[in-house]
Specification:
Helix content of chain B: over 70%
Largest sheet of chain B: none
CATH class of the largest domain in chain A: Mainly Alpha
Number of helices of chain B: 17
Shape of chain A: globular
Strand content of chain B: under 5%
Largest sheet of chain A: none
Distance between the termini of chain B: 49 Å
Distance between the termini of chain A: 68 Å
Structural class of chain B: mainly alpha
Order of helices and strands of chain A: HHHHHHHHHHHHHHH
Strand content of chain A: under 5%
Number of helices of chain A: 15
CATH superfamily of the largest domain in chain A: MetI-like
Shape of chain B: globular
Oligomer: heterodimer
CATH topology of the largest domain in chain A: MetI-like fold
Chain lengths: 298, 318
């Protein structure tokens, strides 16, 4: 009799225990383990890039005596070579100039366009918005050959100005779409009040809508900056002289020479070239995530 | 007294000069606001698109104005084994890479949708491959795939002793093809995962609670709630992903430049090689144009195949 009473009690107390342990282990196996594998694989190339750029050549080419995953005698030789023996600072400067120029241009164009489409409301404004959005679906790989002839026609071949003018083709659609979403979230009543008070449309845009859309402008701005910093195919096709190249193109075409690749210098170049966007990114992570997801949502 | 000063102040405000009035005239303002964006897109996007279509029907080369040759370029492409190779690899590349990106990306999004410490930090780290310039991370992959000093070979041969010889990643066609696909998947996972995570967070928890009360298993909850609710966002993200994977250029150009033996040419790299490097603008344009039917088909398939109903956020285009 006592046995039968005691047994259910034991059964009742043990399961939660095993379940708690089981779910802890389960959580480890189902969430943390795969997650750490993902993080490891996604970050490894960057670790490899960083560690290669500080390794002396002797360690770089000898895995038998040196553990390749670590550096025993770190060196700045590759970075020094890059900064003083190549035109790397010049490339960085050009890239910065192109990225800032095209970002500014596309921010101005897309703010005005988004304001017109979302707030001035004319007949057919949704179709104009859709048309601009469709432009985002045209991949640069289809456009670069005819664009090269257009750039030559305009006399802009081999000039960074060509890139500043061409990059907005993929920045404007994205920014416009993002800003339309932001403008939508600003109450229309605010503008009506200003209109009643006698403000002109441009005053409303400058004094009311834009200050409220600052988060959207920051998102669009950093996104444009990143996209123009990373752009490759147009920069490869339109720029020929070594001095005017952007960082991604220059590393691939100027630093990759001969049969023996200078892996240390190549990786140092990649690391330095990634650093500006990585720093930018770390400062504005939330804006990146919101603009990425916002663009998909809109 | 005070009333008259007020009204005169109002009068002054109400009679601005003609320039201000012009900028307050709505049709003019609309045109002025749209002009920069539309102008840029018309000159550098629509016009080149049309020009590209025209060039594809001419025999233009760099420095020589071409003549209209009809379908000659396309007829030539149909007999060109390199073009067929590029079509084949573009389709394989897009197919496998898209599948890999979405399978792994969806998994990562589901993992990230759990609660654990340092979640936002982790999310920030995961997006890194997508932020860094593709060519620069491609260079890192090139180094990882080095025939002699590949770290993967080192790991498999010297540390784990699973193999006895180094892997020749980029030296022969099929390993090179799969190495490029792996690099593309690596680069694509963060975008897919973060976009899908945003979609996962919009699914109302009450749906899961209701399903749990009805005794649905974890798999059933995924199959009948998560998956259908994610369909619309999956369709959009996949459309984008397919378009930009099919027309990919950077990874292949940076790692193999189409080699070994032209086996890893995508249509975009082949177009570059013929059109810009080789100077045959007409033929290059024809190769670029030949991507369009594939893109249209892929877009229609992924968009209309997946998005059976209109997407919640997208439809309110009021």
């Amino acid at each position: 009799m006592t046995d039968t009473v005691a047994q259910p009690a034991a059964v009742a107390t043990t399961p939660p225990d095993t379940m708690a342990w089981d779910s802890g282990l389960r959580r480890l196996m189902m969430i943390y383990l795969p997650l750490s594998c993902f993080v490891l694989i996604l970050l490894f190339p960057f670790y490899w890039m960083a560690i290669t750029s500080f390794k002396p050549n002797a360690e770089l080419m000898n895995y038998k005596e040196h553990n390749p995953f670590w550096i025993t005698s770190p060196t700045l030789a590759h970075i020094k070579h890059l900064l003083f023996d190549t035109a790397y600072p010049r490339w960085l400067w050009t890239t910065m100039l192109v990225a800032i120029g095209s970002t500014t241009l596309s921010l101005i164009a897309s703010t005005l366009a988004a304001y017109a489409i979302e707030r001035l409301r004319f007949r057919g404004s949704p179709y104009v918005g859709l048309g601009i959005y469709m432009a985002y679906l045209v991949p640069p790989s289809i456009l670069f050959i005819p664009l090269a002839t257009v750039v030559v026609q305009f006399g802009l071949f081999d000039s960074p100005l060509a890139l500043i003018l061409v990059y907005p083709t993929f920045l404007v659609p994205f920014c416009t779409w993002l800003l339309i979403g932001y403008f939508k979230s600003i109450p229309y009543e605010l503008e009506e009040c200003a209109l009643v008070d006698g403000a002109t449309r441009l005053q409303i845009l400058r004094r009311i809508t834009l200050p409220l859309a600052v988060p959207g402008l920051i998102s669009a701005g950093i996104f444009s900056f990143t996209l123009s910093w990373n752009e490759f195919i147009y920069a490869l096709a339109f720029i020929q002289s070594g001095a005017n190249k952007t960082v991604p193109v220059a590393i691939l075409t100027e630093l990759v020479t001969g049969d023996v690749y200078q892996w240390g210098a190549l990786m140092a170049g990649s690391l330095l070239g990634s650093l500006p966007v990585a720093i930018f990114y770390s400062l504005f992570v939330d804006y990146y995530v919101s603009s990425l997801t916002g663009a998909v949502k809109e | 007294m005070s009333v008259t000063t007020l009204s005169s102040a109002v009068l002054v405000q109400r009679q601005p000069n003609w320039l201000v009035r012009l900028f307050d005239y709505k049709p003019f303002l609309v045109v002025m606001c749209l002009a920069p964006a539309i102008g840029l897109l018309a000159v550098f996007l629509t016009y080149p698109l049309g020009l590209g279509l025209w060039l594809a029907f001419t025999d233009t080369t760099i420095g020589r104005k071409g003549e209209f040759v009809g379908l000659e370029n396309f007829q030539y492409l149909l007999t060109d084994s390199l073009w067929w190779n590029a079509v084949f690899y573009s389709v394989v590349y897009t197919g496998i890479a898209t599948f890999g990106k979405f399978a792994l990306g969806f998994w990562l999004a589901l993992l990230l949708n759990n609660h654990f410490p340092f979640k936002s930090l982790l999310r920030a780290i995961i997006l890194l491959p997508w932020i860094v310039p593709t060519v620069l991370s491609a260079l890192a992959f090139w180094w990882i795939y080095d025939p002699q000093f590949s770290i993967i070979s080192y790991l498999l041969v010297d540390v784990l002793h699973w193999r006895t010889t180094d892997i020749d990643f980029l030296g022969s066609p099929w390993p090179a093809r799969f190495s490029l696909i792996a690099a593309n998947i690596w680069r694509g996972i963060p975008f897919v995962a973060i976009s899908l995570l945003a979609g996962l967070q919009t699914i109302s928890p009450s749906l899961y609670e209701a399903a749990m009360l009805d005794g649905a298993s974890a798999w059933q909850r995924f199959r009948y709630i998560t998956f259908p609710m994610m369909m619309p966002i999956l369709a959009i993200v996949m459309t984008f992903s397919i378009i930009f994977t099919f027309t990919d250029f950077q990874l292949v150009y940076a790692i193999t430049r189409g080699g070994p033996g032209n086996s890893t040419h995508l249509l975009a790299t082949l177009a570059f090689q013929r059109g810009i490097a080789g100077g045959e603008l007409g033929e290059g344009a024809a190769i670029a144009v030949s991507m369009i039917p594939f893109l249209v088909f892929a877009t229609l398939f992924s968009y209309f195949g997946l998005a059976r109903r209109k997407w919640q956020q997208g439809e309110s285009n009021d």
